[in-house]
Every structure is written in structure tokens, then in C-alpha cells.
Design a protein that fits this description.
heterotrimer, A mainly alpha (1040), B mainly alpha (231), C mainly alpha (118), A: mainly alpha, three-stranded antiparallel beta sheet, 7 strands, elongated, C: mainly alpha, Helix Hairpins, 4 helices
């Protein structure tokens, strides 16, 4: 293998060679540039290969035939090799990406690019402090040159501001270097370990050098210059600036950090986290895509700086974390900058033009997922290891900061993705195949990096998980017609269930049954969709894969990874709805917030250990247990939309597509429930300050049920009504498991199945009706019973099942529930949950009454029954409900037996078809017989009595020569429960919405206020830099 | 006013840092270990009499290569900046012709200056001076020519070729050091010669000559770019 | 002597920086930086100075055998040469930028270059 110093020699040689070329041979010059960068990349990749898989020793390269410190030496270890690969490849790709502008600007520009890449490589390799300075200056000057490639007129100003800052930095660096040399008699960085401990001039010198090097990483607030450059420079160069320069600066800080000693580490951490949080906050207020990317770059670099500060504490996992963040960020940011080169407008909403090309959307989604640390990318492993490492070293507050910053970042990045997917798209992107290929290659490199991180890390490689691979395979199939893919998806779900059928325990079996076969039934409705339905199947299958992985997860890592996978899949799925942009965003932010709580909970529980089984939750020490319980429960309850955390649900479920609503409502919500069950199964009920946490959950469940039902009753939109009803229903479920007794759990598990069935069924039938009528507002419907009888039957059966009246399975659930309550002594929440029962009747009644009964609207007279494929699953559900009502033992008996192993007391007795509890018995068959008998006789009576009933007109109101302002308000179904609203309206105050609006509002306000700090004046930036250096010296110096 | 006050306060802070450095400074009583090594080994390692030259060209040769690159880079960027600006508005009238005396004087001086420059960089390993100083002197001859006859056309091509060929040769010598001697930019690829003579110190005089040519060409190129803007 | 040179160097840096961060005119600002650069170079050579010694050039005056006792530190001298050249490169670059800014915007006032902010 050729020496790594040849990267420098090739870069320089090619640059000089370009000088020999004649004007007018630009194409040749460009070929030479690409060739040289290719050769540099090849050397870098070769060394990475040798040092990584090859296991070669760290390479020491001496120059001038003299040993260091008397001559300059270079070093290439694994870290350096990774950085070199990223820098050279970023340079190569940018040279290809910027071909047009390079040809226009001529060979000089190409020489500048070559030298820029060469200089960054030099920064990474050199071990000599002054040599580091030389390479930094080369990088700075070439940056000054590359900025000129931009078409943006403002680039000149940005370049000049940059040079002002570069000058100040270089003066500080030189003073620092010369005094460090004076103190050690050497310029070699390896001779400067612990130099700051000498105090006096040596310490000051170290701080000056550190300040200068840290300034190169663009720390908050001394980074206005960098943001201007990001915004104004050619995106091809911004990619190098973000991926290459940022990497090189971080490596430089990492190299020199040893000289700062112990006092420096916390300062780097603090600075990095401050930058991470502040830059992300400021990112919220950005509308220019490149400036936004700039803020995000600054933030990510800050996070890595913080990791460098925690190097000692993180120990072995340091490389995995820092490398994962660095590689993920470099690939993603370079890719996004190149993408921004394809988008004409500079506003974030202009990115909607990408939507015309699914491949570009795939690339963008990949890059965003990498930045956010979602599975299966390197950042995911890094994030997990970082949080665990920090917890292990007692840095709980740091974890909080990291997670808050990451959540804000997710906020603006995913909002941007929402714009891309949902906003008005002008024309398609004009991209050449080469540009497209480049961006795609980078995206694939991201997946490759994810594979590598999965392999080298101490965790499972997610890209080896069969379920995930199966879901990802649908990405490759996306060119097929939707119906073909639908068959494949159903086959995959059924096949997956069949394959692991034997290995489930009864608890897992219940969830698996609704996830896989249940999902397949809902997918029947998807046959209704024509065309290719690009993106639907990968998203849906990702969600199903996540759910399937979740229920079998053994380790906390596997559980969390599955949780994130299902979150990502369902986010993409929900985002597909026509008007779901804001709702999908709030869904994913709540979910990610919840996921972070879960991650923190696991980290706390494991004490930072990398491998922690779910079963080990039972062994968490008593002092920690309540906190772990709270964090995990909080995370799970964001998914079940418990009261206060529920505001994302109505919009997300209601605005989703017809076949998506049942998936996210009937299936996805159960993930949270599963989590809570596993949690309580392992941890029981810890107490905090003498309060049993399950008692708190009882209250949460009860209030959720009450408020969810109440709000549902006042909805005009049928799908929103169902969505709020889901909130209430999940409240029941939480209440049930929080009872912590046999029957409570039995009720909850029965509820898992029941809720899946009737909520899927209702969403499908209401969705079918909405498809036909073109509205979801109930007062615009009415009288559809004759036109859509099958839908009517489905809704009727559904609400009977749901309301818990005989004869359907809901009654059984209710019966078990009341038995369970009687065993508990939590009286007060019990009253609340009793109250919410009747309220459920109110909204359920509306579904039947306003949609199907009453008089038909004129515009609806020609409607037909809902499409066959949407009705088919409803009929299957109806049949199942009827069977389950008569013989509930089919499923319940096994579960009951299983629960007896957990809660041996107060189980049920199975006596043929009759079921006995401590308090009474339930005989489903006789209930069915009696109910049907009573119903039939009452019906007969009514028909006999009312055969000559008179029909009334619809708008039964006298206008008195005046047209009402809003005619629909005169419809009887409008504001149906006005009297109740008067009585109970005070409970409807949107406290949670107001609260969360306040949170986002104040974040945005803070961002808008803070960013005025970056006045755009180069001299103010100089003040920031000087002030930054002084404060840094004060802090570090004071710490000595 | 506020701006001045802030600037003043910040610089006062920096001044305090400098004051601390100044107060804590003690001149070394004897050479530190790097300097001692150079004092004792320069002659045997490199054969150069001028230790600074040995440090610049050999021990810290990578710095110097970077330094030359800085000039190359600056020359390229300055040319990019200045040529990419306004469209040439043609020669501006109203410039007085330079006098006969100046012309003749410069014709006499330019070769002498160039010769002196060459002397400085060729003797860099023996006496004070070296490639950068020699190159700067050569460029000053260029400056003189530009001042005496601003309308004169210089061959960009020649300058660019000089610049590139000497740069390439420099890199090639560096690589030759890896192949033939102890490492990149090792000067012992050529015989060491007799200490103190002009043909000694291995590749140092050669490198210095290349640096001299390159620096002279780069400065000339920058000057030329700037002056052409004036036309 | 050394202390005086050192103090002068520091003073030049502060003076130059003061000019560079308070003057609005780009050219004056650049001049400020060159002054500060010069100060930096002065500081660098001062640090390498050993009282009572001579330049690190061997020959009749300083035979190689006694060099260790007679010469000053050669390293800062080498460094300062590099620093000077780099400073020169940056100055040339800033001047070119200033010209281009004047050509496109018609101003040399740095406070007019505030299009990018926030």
C-alpha cells in the first residue's frame, strides 16, 4: 500500500499540473481533477481497509528522514482513515457535482478544490502543531476561493467576513503555538499531553490553541460567519465544508484535547451541548434551506465536540459514538447539500419539487433519518451508546440536553420533510442522470455505513433482522402496481406470522395475531387503490416489521430499535394523508419524544450497560425503579395518547388515508399498550414518595377515558369522533392493566383484540362512507341506511361491540372489567371511569343516527354502497365479532390460563360455555339468545305500531324571509349535544393543546429573538470570536 | 460609540491575556531540545550551514511545501477574483507615458535585481536568505517593470509554466526522498558535498532554487493580476 | 531587550486588531490586520531569542562544534518565515476580495455587507 502522505502529494501535484494546462482545455482539466481526487480517495479507502478489517497497526509517517519531534510526522490510525475517506470522497463527489461550474470557472478553481481537499487531509494526518496551522490556513484560503464559485452575489460578503474571522483565529493560534513551543521545546502534539497542568504561560498557550481549534468547529455563538458561508456558497462546496472541514476540525480538537488536561473536558462538553441545543433552536426559525442545513451542521458538530469532551467517560464506545455521529452527519449533510443544488428555489417549501421523483424522496428521507439517528443508520447506534455511556458516567443532565436538542432538530427537519411531501410542487426537478446517480450513491453509502456500524458495534445488526429486511424489500418492489404489492404484503404478513407462530407465548400471541393476520385483513381494503401507490408499502411494512420485532424483543436495544422502526414507518404512513402534514409532524415529534424517554429509561435501568435484557428490568435497584418506571411509562403513553400527550392523535388518525386509519388506530396504538404490559410484568408497581405509580396510572387511565369520550361526543367529523374515541378507549385499557390484577389484565388483553376489530371496522366503514359522500362531516350525511346497508350493519355491530351492551363481546369485556374493579380498592378513579361509560353511548349513537338514520340529503341520492374491497374486511370483522360473542373461550381461555401464571388469584372458572368469576357468571350463549329474542320482539312490536308513521321534512324550520348565515347550523345533527356541552363544556377546555402550543410558540419566539444576534456585520462576528475566546479562557483558566 | 467601547473592552481582555504571557515569559537560558538537536545534527544530517534553511527545507519541509502552496493558491484565487469581476472596460485614457530615464534605468536594474535574487536563493543553505527571499527579490524586478511600463504585456503563460513546473519538481523531489532516502522531502537524495560550498547540502539548493522560481512567479502573477485591473 | 520586543509585538497586535474591528473601510481593515500580523511575527521571533547569542548560521564565525552554545533558537525563525508568507497570501486574497466587492457593490463599507444574517 502506498504511503498515506501520497494523498497530499497527489493533491498538490495535480494542482500544479493544472497550472500547466492551456485555457480552453477545461474538460481535460476536470478529468484530471477527478482522476486525482479518485486516486486520493483510493489511497484513503485502501488504508481504511488495511486498518479496519485488515487489522494493520497505526501508520507512523516520518518526513525528512528524521524522527519526530525534530521533523514533521504524520499518523494514520483508524480514526484518521475514516476521516480521510470521508474528506476525499466528499471532494471527489463534489468535483463531479460541480462539474458545470468548475468548467466555467476554469482550471484555477479546480486547483483550489484539490488543495482544499489536500489541506483537510493534512489537518487530519499531521502530528505537528505548526504544520496543523499551515494546513488550516490552506483550508481557510481555499475556502475563500471556493466561496466564489457561488452564483449568489452575497457570497462575496460572506467570504470576506470569513476571512476576517480566519485572520483573528490565525493570530491567536500562532501566539498559542509559539508559547506552547517555548514551554515544551517541541512542536509535536504528542509532546504536549497535559501541558495545561504546567500553569502560567504554558496553560494560556494551550487555551489559545484550543480556543482557535474549537473556533474552527463553529461553536455557538461565534459562528455567524460559518452560517453565512453555508448559505451563500455553492452547495457542492458547502457539502465539503460540512462533511470535510467539520470532520477535520473535530479531529484537530480531538488530537489536541490531551494537552488541555482534565479541566478542558467538561468545557468542551458544555460548549458542544450549548452549540447543539442553541443551533438547533435557531434552526427552527430558518426558511432558507441552506442556512437551515448550516445550523444543523453546526449543531451536529457541537454534539460531536461534546462527545470528544466525554472521551474518558465513554471509554471503549467512544469511537463507535463519535465515528457514528461523524459519518452519519457527513454523509447526510453532503447528500442534502447536493440535493439542494437540484432544487431551484431557496425556500424550504420549494423542496416540494423533489416529490416528483420517488428516488430523490428516498434519498432525502435517508439523509434526514441519518441526521436524526433513526435505525438502521450509524447515528442510531451512536445515540444509543452515547446516552448509555453518559448515564454510566453519571451525566444524566447531559442526556436531557442531548435529547432536547435532538428533539428540536427533529422538529425542523421533519417539518421540512412535511413541506417536501405536501406543499404545492411547481415543476419536476431538472436533474441529469449523473446528479441523480451521485445523490443516490451517497444515500446508499449511508445504508452501507449503517450495516458497518451494526456489524462492528456491540449490538445486533438491525440490517440483519429478517422483518426489517422484508420491509425494505418493498422499497425495491415499489415500481410494481399496487395490487401486486398488496398481494405480496398480505403474503408477507401471513407468512411472517406462520413462521414464528410456534415461538410466541400467549401474551405475544395476542399482539402478533392483531399485527400480522390483523394487518393482512386491513390490507384487503387496500385492493381498492389503483395505480402504483408509491411509498405506501415500504412505509406500512416498516411499521408492521417494527411491531413484529417489538413483541419478540429480548434486549432493551432490540426493543428500542423496533420502537423507532415502527415510529418511522407509521410516520411515513400518516404523512400520506392529504391534509396530514401538521398532524404527522406532531405525531412523530411526540413519538420521538416518547422514544427518547424510553431510551433514557432503559439507560437508567441498565446503569449504562450495553446489553440489557428486558427481563432484567425486574432487577432494577429500588432507588432507581420508580424513575425508570416513570420514564418508560411516559414513553409508552405517548403512543397510547394518554391525556396530556394525546393532542397528536385526532389529526393523525382522522386525516390518514381510508385504509391507514384502521392500521394506525387498530394496530399501532397497541404498541404502547404492549410496552406498558411488559413494563408492569417486569417491574410490578414501584412507589415514589409512598405513592404507587400504578395508582397514578389508574387516574391517568380514568381521566383519559372520560375526556376522550367527552370530546368525541362533540365532534362533527366522523373520523375525528372515532379518533377521540380511541383516546378514551386506550384510557380504559390503561386503567385495566393498572389495576394489576388478573381480571384487569384479562380485560385489557380482550380489549386489545376487541378494539382492533371494532375500531378497524368503524374506521373502514366511516372511511367508505366518506369516500362516497366526499365529506367526513356527519351533519352533511344522514339517511344512508338504504343506500349503504352493509356499511350500516358494520357500524351497528361495531358500536354494539364497543359500547359493551349485550350480546356482543364488548359486553363480556365490560363484565370482566366490573369484576376486576370490584377486586380493587381504588374507589375515586373508579367513579370517573364509570362516568365515562355513558358518554361513550352519546358519541356512538351519533354515528348511527347522524350518518345512517334520518333523511337523505338531495346531493346524496345517487350514492352507492362503499367499494367492495372496503366492505369485505368489515364483513369479516362482523362475522368474527358474532362468533367471538358466542364462544369467547376460543381466545380468552388460553389467555386466562397464561395470566394465572402471573396473577394466580381471582381467575375465571371455565364451565363449559359459561364463565364464572368470584362475583357471578357470564353465559355468552344465553346472553346472545336473550338479547336477540328481546330485540326481535321489540322490533316486531314497533313495526306493527308504526306502519303508518308520518314522515317529516328535513330542514324543519321557518326562515321568515331570511336566509340563515350558516344554513348547516339549522340541521338537526349540527351541534347535536348542545345541552351536554352546556353542562360539561368546562371539561373540554383545550388545556393540553394550549400547553403544547405554548411550548412550541415559546421555542419559536426564543429562536426568532436569539437569531438577531447574528447581525450579518463581519466586525460583530469578530467581536463574537474575541468574546468567545476570552470567556473560554476565563472558564478553563478559572477551572485550574 | 458603543461599538468602540465593546471593541475596546474585548481588546483589553485580550491585552490581559497577553500581559499574563508577557509576565510569565522567561527567555530560555540554553537551547531547548529541538533547537539543540538542530544545532548538533544539522551538519551531519543535511550538510547545510544555514540551520534555518535546513529547518525550513528539510526538517519542516512539509510546512514549506504548504507555504509555497499558499502562494500558489492565492495567485490562483486572486486571478479568479479579479478576472471574474467587471467586464474589461478597455484601456483607460489619460495615463501619462513614463519617461525615458525610467525606462533606461529599469532596463539596467531589472537583470541585476534578478541576478541578485538568484544569488540569494542559490546560497540559501549557506548564508541568510533562501527561496522566499530570492523569489521576492525577483518579483520586485517584475514590479519595477510593471511600474515603468504599465501598458506592457507579460506572458502569463511563461509565468504559469514556471510556477507549475517548479511546483511539480518540488513534489517530485519530495517523493524521491521517500523512494531513495529516509522519507518525504529528505534532502539526502543528492550527495552532501563539502560543507560550506555551494554544491552541498544535498537537495537543499535545488529545492531552494525551485522555491525561488516558484515564489517569484507567484508574486509576479499576483502583481500582474492586480495591475491588469488598473488598465 | 526581549521583553521590549515582546511587548511591542503584543501592542502591535492589539493596535492592529483595534483598527481591524472598528474601521468600516475594507482597506483600512486590511491594513489593521497586516499590522497585527507584523506584531505576531515580532512576538514569534522574540520568543526564540536567547540573550547574547548569534544567528543560527554556521561557518567561520560559528563552527559547528560550538553551535549549541552560540546560536539562538532556529525554529521560531523558520516558523516566522512561513507565517509571513501565509499572512501575505491572506492579505493579497483580502485585497482581491475588496476590489471585487467594490466592483460589484460600489462600496468599501463593511457594514453594507449585511445581506446574509440571522
Amino acid at each position: 500500500m502506498v504511503s498515506a502522505i501520497s494523498i497530499i502529494a497527489i493533491g498538490l501535484g495535480a494542482a500544479f499540473l493544472l497550472g500547466l494546462m492551456r485555457e480552453g482545455r477545461e474538460a481535460l482539466a476536470h478529468a484530471l481533477t477527478v482522476l486525482a481526487l479518485g486516486a486520493m480517495s483510493a489511497v484513503a479507502v485502501g488504508w481504511l481497509w488495511l486498518l479496519g478489517p485488515g487489522g494493520a497497526a497505526v501508520q507512523e509517517i516520518t518526513t525528512a528522514g528524521t524522527m519526530p519531534p525534530f521533523a514533521i510526522n504524520l499518523r494514520v490510525g483508524l480514526t484518521e482513515a475514516v476521516a480521510l475517506v470521508m474528506i476525499t470522497l466528499a471532494g471527489l463527489a463534489s468535483a463531479l457535482h460541480m462539474r458545470a461550474v468548475l468548467l466555467r470557472m476554469g482550471r484555477r478553481a479546480m486547483a483550489v478544490l484539490l488543495i482544499a481537499v489536500m489541506a483537510l487531509a493534512g489537518i487530519v494526518m499531521t502530528r505537528d502543531l505548526f504544520n496543523l496551522f499551515v494546513f488550516f490556513e490552506l483550508a481557510a484560503i481555499s475556502t475563500g476561493g471556493m466561496v466564489l464559485l457561488s452564483d449568489d452575489e452575497d457570497a462575496l460578503g460572506a467570504g470576506f467576513k470569513y476571512m476576517i474571522v480566519a485572520q483573528i483565529v490565525s493570530i491567536l493560534l500562532l501566539i498559542g503555538i509559539i508559547f506552547a513551543y517555548h514551554a515544551t521545546g517541541s512542536l509535536n502534539i504528542d509532546d504536549m499531553g497535559g501541558l495545561a497542568a504546567m500553569g502560567g504561560g504554558a496553560a494560556l498557550a494551550v487555551f489559545l490553541v484550543v480556543a482557535a481549534l474549537v473556533l474552527e468547529t463553529k461553536p455557538f455563538p461565534a459562528n455567524g460567519w460559518a452560517l453565512d458561508i453555508y448559505q451563500a456558497a455553492h452547495p457542492g462546496f458547502s457539502a465539503i465544508l460540512s462533511a470535510g472541514t467539520g470532520t477535520a476540525a473535530l479531529i484537530a480538537v480531538d488530537k489536541f484535547a490531551g494537552a488541555g488536561g482534565a479541566a478542558l473536558a467538561p468545557v468542551l462538553t458544555g460548549l458542544g451541548l450549548l452549540t447543539f441545543v442553541a443551533a438547533n433552536l435557531l434552526g427552527l426559525a430558518q426558511t432558507n434551506d441552506r442556512r437551515l442545513l448550516g445550523y444543523s451542521s453546526v449543531a451536529q458538530t457541537g454534539l460531536i465536540l461534546a462527545v470528544i469532551g466525554q472521551r474518558e467517560a465513554l471509554g471503549e464506545s467512544y469511537l463507535l459514538i463519535a465515528g457514528g455521529l461523524l459519518v452519519g452527519h457527513a454523509i447526510a449533510k453532503a447528500g442534502l447539500f447536493w440535493l439542494s443544488g437540484l432544487v431551484k428555489g431557496r425556500d424550504l417549501t420549494d423542496w416540494a419539487t423533489l416529490r416528483r421523483s420517488p428516488l430523490l424522496v428516498f434519498a432525502m428521507a435517508t439523509f434526514l433519518a441519518m441526521l436524526l439517528g433513526l435505525p438502521p443508520f450509524p447515528g442510531f447506534y451512536a445515540k444509543w451508546a452515547l446516552v448509555h455511556g453518559l448515564v454510566a458516567s453519571g451525566g444524566g443532565a447531559l442526556v436531557a440536553l442531548v435529547l432536547i436538542g435532538a428533539l428540536i432538530e427533529a422538529g425542523y427537519l421533519l417539518r421540512w420533510f412535511g413541506f417536501t411531501m405536501k406543499r404545492e410542487a411547481s415543476e419536476a426537478v431538472a436533474s441529469t442522470p449523473a446528479e441523480l446517480a451521485l445523490v443516490l450513491a451517497v444515500a446508499l453509502a449511508g445504508w452501507g455505513a449503517g450495516w458497518i456500524w451494526g456489524e462492528v458495534g456491540p449490538y445486533e445488526n438491525l440490517l440483519r433482522a429478517p422483518a426489517l429486511l422484508l420491509a425494505l424489500a418493498f422499497l425495491l418492489l415499489d415500481w410494481l402496481p399496487a395490487r401486486v404489492k398488496n398481494v405480496a404484503a398480505i403474503a408477507a404478513l401471513i407468512g411472517g406470522f406462520a413462521a414464528s407462530f410456534a415461538s410466541y407465548d400467549p401474551l405475544q400471541m395476542i399482539f402478533a395475531a392483531i399485527i400480522m393476520p390483523g394487518g393482512a385483513v386491513i390490507l384487503l381494503a387496500s385492493f381498492y387503490e389503483h395505480g402504483r401507490r408509491v411509498g405506501f408499502y415500504p412505509s406500512a411494512m416498516l411499521m408492521f416489521a417494527g411491531m413484529a420485532m417489538l413483541i419478540v424483543a429480548q434486549s432493551s436495544f432490540g426493543f428500542f430499535a423496533a420502537w423507532e422502526v415502527l415510529t418511522v414507518g407509521s410516520y411515513f404512513l400518516i404523512l400520506r394523508g392529504k391534509y396530514s402534514e401538521p398532524h404527522a409532524l406532531s405525531y412523530v415529534l411526540f413519538s420521538l419524544g416518547g422514544a427518547f424517554a424510553i431510551m433514557a429509561g432503559f439507560a437508567l435501568a441498565s446503569g449504562g450497560m450495553a446489553n440489557f435484557t428486558m427481563a432484567a428490568l425486574a432487577q432494577v435497584p429500588l432507588t432507581l425503579a420508580p424513575w425508570v418506571f416513570i420514564l418508560l411509562a411516559l414513553g409508552f403513553m405517548t403512543k397510547t395518547a394518554a391525556i396530556g400527550l394525546h393532542i397528536w392523535l385526532p389529526g393523525a388518525h382522522a386525516e390518514a388515508e381510508t385504509d391507514v386509519s384502521p392500521m394506525v388506530s387498530g394496530i399501532l396504538l397497541k404498541a404502547g399498550l404492549f410496552g406498558l404490559m411488559v413494563l408492569m410484568l417486569q417491574m410490578g408497581s414501584p412507589s415514589l414518595y409512598g405513592v404507587k405509580l400504578t395508582y397514578v396510572l389508574l387516574w391517568i387511565g380514568a381521566l383519559t377515558a372520560l375526556i376522550g369520550n367527552l370530546i368525541a361526543a362533540f365532534q362533527e367529523d366522523a373520523k375525528r369522533l372515532l379518533a377521540y374515541s380511541s383516546i378514551g378507549q386506550m384510557g380504559y385499557a390503561i386503567f385495566g392493566i393498572a389495576l394489576m390484577n388478573h381480571l384487569g389484565w384479562l380485560m385489557a388483553l380482550m380489549f386489545v383484540i376487541n378494539h382492533y376489530i371494532y375500531k378497524s371496522m368503524l374506521f373502514l366503514s366511516v372511511g367508505g362512507v366518506a369516500k362516497r359522500t366526499g365529506t367526513r362531516l356527519m351533519y352533511k350525511m344522514g339517511g344512508l341506511i338504504a343506500l349503504m346497508p352493509l356499511s350500516f350493519i358494520a357500524v351497528l355491530i361495531g358500536i354494539i361491540a364497543m359500547s359493551g351492551v349485550p350480546p356482543l363481546s364488548g359486553f363480556g369485556g365490560r363484565w370482566i372489567f366490573y369484576n376486576a374493579i370490584m377486586e380493587s380498592d381504588a374507589r375515586a378513579p373508579m367513579i370517573v371511569i364509570f362516568l365515562s361509560g355513558p358518554i361513550a353511548f352519546l358519541y356512538l349513537f351519533r354515528l348511527i343516527h347522524s350518518i345512517f338514520l334520518g333523511q337523505l340529503k338531495d346531493e346524496n341520492r345517487r350514492l352507492r354502497e362503499a367499494p367492495f374491497w372496503i366492505v369485505l374486511p368489515q364483513m369479516l370483522y362482523t362475522a368474527f365479532l358474532l362468533v367471538f360473542a358466542v364462544v369467547p373461550g376460543l381466545a380468552l381461555r388460553r389467555v386466562d390460563g397464561y395470566l394465572s401464571t402471573i396473577f394466580p388469584e381471582h381467575g375465571l372458572n371455565w364451565d363449559g360455555l359459561t364463565i364464572r368469576s368470584d362475583y357471578g357468571y357470564w353465559s355468552p350463549v344465553s346472553v346472545m339468545a336473550v338479547t336477540v329474542g328481546i330485540f326481535a320482539s321489540v322490533l316486531l312490536l314497533l313495526v306493527l305500531l308504526n306502519h303508518r308513521a308520518q314522515k317529516v321534512k328535513q330542514f324543519n324550520i321557518v326562515y321568515s324571509a331570511e336566509r340563515p348565515f350558516r344554513p348547516e347550523t339549522t340541521h338537526f345533527a349540527w351541534n347535536f349535544f348542545a345541552p351536554y356541552r352546556k353542562a360539561l363544556g368546562f371539561l373540554l377546555a383545550p388545556l393540553a393543546t394550549t400547553f403544547w402550543d405554548g411550548v412550541t410558540g415559546s421555542l419559536h419566539g426564543a429562536a426568532d429573538f436569539l437569531r438577531r444576534f447574528y447581525t450579518g456585520d463581519g466586525q460583530h462576528y469578530a467581536y463574537h470570536v474575541l468574546g468567545f475566546v476570552l470567556v473560554l479562557i476565563l472558564i478553563v483558566g478559572g477551572g485550574l | 460609540m458603543i461599538k468602540r467601547a465593546i471593541a475596546f473592552a474585548l481588546l483589553a481582555g485580550l491585552g490581559l491575556v497577553f500581559l499574563a504571557l508577557w509576565q510569565g515569559f522567561e527567555p530560555d537560558p540554553s537551547l531547548n531540545r529541538s533547537a539543540l538537536y538542530y544545532a548538533e545534527n544539522t551538519v551531519t544530517d543535511t550538510g547545510a550551514a544555514n540551520i534555518v534553511a535546513a529547518v525550513i527545507v528539510t526538517y519542516r519541509g512539509l510546512d514549506t511545501l504548504g507555504e509555497v502552496t499558499v502562494l500558489f493558491l492565492t495567485a490562483a484565487i486572486v486571478a479568479m477574483v479579479l478576472r471574474g469581476g467587471l467586464a474589461d472596460s478597455g484601456p483607460r485614457p489619460g495615463r501619462w507615458p513614463t519617461g525615458e530615464l525610467l525606462h533606461t534605468g529599469s532596463r539596467l536594474l531589472v537583470p541585476l535585481i534578478a541576478l541578485f535574487g538568484a544569488y540569494v536563493f542559490l546560497n540559501g543553505h549557506l548564508t541568510p536568505g533562501g527561496g522566499f527571499q530570492g523569489g521576492a527579490i525577483i518579483a520586485s524586478a517584475m514590479l519595477l517593470m510593471l511600474l515603468t511600463d504599465p501598458a506592457r504585456n507579460f506572458s502569463h503563460r511563461l509565468i504559469a509554466t514556471t510556477e507549475s513546473v517548479s511546483g511539480l519538481a518540488y513534489v517530485a523531489i519530495g517523493l524521491a526522498g521517500m523512494a531513495l532516502a529516509g522519507g518525504f522531502l529528505d534532502n539526502r537524495i543528492l550527495p552532501m558535498g563539502e560543507f560550506g560550498s555551494i554544491l552541498s547540502a544535498g537537495a537543499i539548493p535545488l529545492i531552494y532554487a525551485l522555491i525561488g522560481l516558484k515564489v517569484g512567479a507567484e508574486f509576479s502573477s499576483i502583481l500582474l493580476s492586480l495591475s491588469e485591473r488598473e488598465k | 531587550m526581549v521583553y521590549l520586543a515582546l511587548a511591542t509585538g503584543f501592542a502591535l497586535i492589539l493596535l492592529g486588531l483595534y483598527g481591524a474591528i472598528t474601521r468600516r473601510n475594507l482597506l483600512r481593515l486590511i491594513v489593521g490586520f497586516t499590522v497585527a500580523d507584523t506584531g505576531t511575527h515580532l512576538v514569534m521571533v522574540s520568543v526564540g531569542y536567547l540573550p547574547g547569542r548569534t544567528a543560527p548560521i554556521l561557518g567561520a564565525a560559528v563552527p559547528p562544534e560550538v553551535a549549541a552554545l552560540r546560536i539562538i533558537d532556529p525554529v521560531p525563525q523558520a516558523l516566522v518565515l512561513t507565517a509571513i508568507v501565509i499572512g501575505l497570501g491572506v492579505t493579497a486574497l483580502m485585497l482581491a476580495y475588496a476590489w471585487r466587492i467594490y466592483a460589484t457593490r460600489g462600496t468599501l463599507d463593511i457594514s453594507r455587507l449585511r445581506q446574509l444574517k440571522w
